[in-house]
Amino acid sequence: MRLLYCPESSPDGRLVRALAELHRVETARGLDDGAALAPIVGADAVICDLDRASSEVVERFRQAASQAWLVAMLPSSREQARLGMLKAGADAVFCRPYVFRELSARLDVFARRTLRRPTALGEPFSLEPADRAVRIAGERVRLSQREFDLLALLAARAGRVAAVEDILQEVWGDEGGARAELVHTYVARLRDKLERGRPWRLLHGARGHGYRFAVERAPQADSTDGESGS
Prior knowledge:
Blueprint: E1 2-7, H1 13-20, E2 24-27, H2 31-41, E3 45-49, H3 55-64, E4 69-74, H4 79-88, E5 92-95, H5 100-113, E6 119-122, E7 125-128, E8 133-136, E9 139-142, H6 145-156, E10 162-163, H7 164-172, H8 180-194, E11 200-206, E12 210-217
Parallel strand pairs: 1-2, 1-3, 3-4, 4-5
Antiparallel strand pairs: 6-7, 7-8, 8-9, 10-12, 11-12
Helix pairs in contact: 2-3, 3-4, 5-6, 6-7, 6-8
């Protein structure tokens, strides 16, 4: 995702560096600069790092970046402050001390929701969420709900490795018995449906880590073996 980080005062360097490892991040020089940049940079999400709760700031950025997801970072954990920001238009509110993995997971949810409409993933593939289908060079391939959720998750993180444990949490949630082998099995099913017999690779294994999504031409039309996230 493309993120716009807007600190009210001093930027949180650790947060910016952590976000930059996963996303394209542009840092504004304050809220005024951020509000001016928001309609220009085309950010998928705007993160307002605030010194205090302010519904006026949320409303201002909601107008400046009406199509972007809006995340507010607050120093207070008071329920009233969080509810006020959500009512003003924030899509998510995090209070310090926050858990970065939770923030990252929320951004991934936002990224997946941008796939609600038919979305090009790179020639010649596109996702069709309404029908849980993938269109491949004009051919429509139906997927199970779980297969589609897995593919959508990886596509939302296109180019980045999704750890197997993160995939389990995001796709299978708290279901008992979900193990790493289940992820490998579903990736194999997707490869069989989407890659076999075609000169394209979609799902790439990072041994011992997980999988990443990228549309790349395969060395051979039926080359779907040889990589594993295990």
